[in-house]
Write a structure and sequence with these properties.
CATH architecture of the largest domain: 2-Layer Sandwich
Number of strands: 16
Largest sheet: 8 strands, mixed
Radius of gyration: 28 Å
CATH topology of the largest domain: BirA Bifunctional Protein, domain 2
Number of domains: 2
Helix content: 25-40%
Strand order of the largest sheet: 1-5-6-11-10-9-7-8
RNA sequence: GCGGGAGUAGCUCAGUUGGUUAGAGCACCUGGUUGUGGUCCAGGGGGUCGCGGGUUCAAGUCCCGUUUCUCGCCCCA
């Protein structure tokens, strides 16, 4: 075993895996553009406070998962653990308030310091979609519809479940929070250590605790739906009605809270049972307070993120790229001629394989290995007749073709 | 941060109660074919048995430590 190990939790994307990733990204880019989304990219690192101020001091991401370091100028820098905060920072930095509403699609690597396991890495890749500046529940529906559309395009929608919940608006959340603190305080000594730490800082997170004792206590906890005010209730009902009208099935999950503090109203996850312990393939929700919290004007927003690795594990093997035509020269004169021919054909749009060395047998072997659909053979015989021999690599059929007719004869191998 | 499983050729793996020079399949190279691949036949190269220590006449095999991978817990994409 070599000592040249990649950093734990990171992986090389070799051609087969890269092709899967590209399939996922291409589908998302194509579908999102039909919904009016434009692609952007933000830097993979930001000042630490872009994340620490927005994700919540008690979120796992901030407390234990960020890759943070001091750069040579003494600035605290963090590799982005998610993309929503970065996109909102970009929205404010570039004065895009005037362009609202904005629809942004992006994708790229994210970094979280966690123990790697199936479907979880320290550097992983996400698709991101954000719709900024639309307070109407229709925006939530549009994001969900688009997400489902992308999953359908990838052929995985039927193998996922859309779980959805409403956290209510800020007032509802605050009211519920107080109810929860009051309730859990009476059981404080029985709660798990994690839950006890969250009791005053972020009691909502206790709701999705998996601890057995916590679950028992939870069964008597006040219901979130009961403390959601009428406006929020109405908002959520509209979302659900629209989903039903569009034929998007969902499953209400009142325990669904999500890990980041900035969510309100709609919270959702598309989950699957196919990826071991990691069920979530796409997750997001509404974050109306986020931009204001970052120092911008009060601006609503909805968005989601999807795991590219997780999706790529669920899709069918993509078809390989277009197969090349190999040029097989025999002899020095033919080599020069073949080299020039390769150049001409590449400029004409053909995918050409041209090896620099080897006898004919080796070159044929190589043509086979790279999956060539045809081989162009040229030696003294062909040169004397000012043409080449084209061999169909599947049927083995060979025909002589003049240089003048070559491109048109090759068209079927494009 | 905590727990389970694993680490032998480029890849997937076998290797008996510890006992010759550590094997197979695939892949690779050469030849059978001096201008013909994918099939077939023959031959060949390739190993710090993760690393370090210990037990033993003898360790891939047993013991301890360590490291990496992997699956799970927590949490998330």
């Amino acid at each position: 075993m070599s000592s040249l190990q990649p950093v734990r939790g990171t992986h090389d994307l070799l051609p087969d895996e890269m092709r899967r990733h590209r399939t996922v990204v291409d589908a998302a880019r194509s579908v999102s553009s039909r919904y009016g989304f434009e692609e952007i990219a933000t830097p993979i690192f930001e000042f630490t406070n872009v994340f620490s101020r927005t994700l919540g001091d008690t979120s796992d991401v901030v407390t234990k998962e960020m890759y943070t370091f001091e750069d040579k100028g003494g600035e605290m820098i963090t590799l982005r653990p998610e993309n929503t905060a970065s996109v909102m920072r970009a929205y404010l930095s570039n004065g895009m308030q005037q362009l609202a509403p904005c629809r942004f699609f992006s994708h790229g690597p994210m970094f979280r310091y966690e123990r790697p396991q199936k479907g979880r890495q320290r550097q992983f890749h996400q698709l991101n979609a954000e719709l900024i500046g639309v307070p109407d529940p229709l925006a939530d529906v549009e994001m969900l519809t688009m997400g489902a559309h992308i999953l359908k395009e990838l052929g995985v929608l039927e193998r996922t479940t859309l779980e959805i919940n409403s956290l209510g608006d800020m007032d509802s959340r605050q009211a519920y929070r107080e109810l929860l603190i009051a309730y859990f305080s009476t059981y404080e000594s029985d709660l798990s250590a994690d839950s006890r730490a969250r009791l005053t800082k972020n009691p909502l997170r206790i709701l999705d605790s998996k601890d057995e004792k916590d679950r028992e206590i939870l069964s008597g906890a006040p219901d979130m739906a009961a403390s959601i005010n009428d406006d929020s209730r109405c908002f959520f009902d509209t979302v659900l009605e629209r989903l039903t009208k569009l034929g998007i099935s969902y499953s209400l999950n009142t325990r669904l809270v999500r890990g980041l503090d900035y969510y309100c109203h709609t919270a959702f996850e598309f989950t699957t049972t196919e990826l071991g312990a990691q069920g979530t393939v796409m997750g997001g929700g509404r974050y109306d307070g986020l931009i204001e919290q970052m120092g911008g004007p009060a601006t609503p927003g909805v968005g989601w993120a999807a795991g590219i690795e997780r999706l790529s594990m669920m899709i069918n093997e993509p078809v390989p790229d277009s197969m090349p035509v190999s040029i097989i020269p025999i002899g020095d004169v033919a080599f020069e001629k073949g080299f020039a021919l390769a150049n001409d054909l590449r400029h004409a749009g053909f995918n050409i394989d041209f090896g620099v060395s080897g006898n004919m047998k080796k070159r044929m072997k190589r043509a086979n290995r790279v999956g060539a659909r045809a081989a162009i053979m040229l030696g003294d015989d062909e040169l004397a007749r000012d043409g080449v021999t084209v061999r169909d690599m599947e049927t083995g059929e060979q025909t002589e073709v003049s240089f003048a007719m070559l491109e048109s004869q090759l068209d079927r191998y494009r």
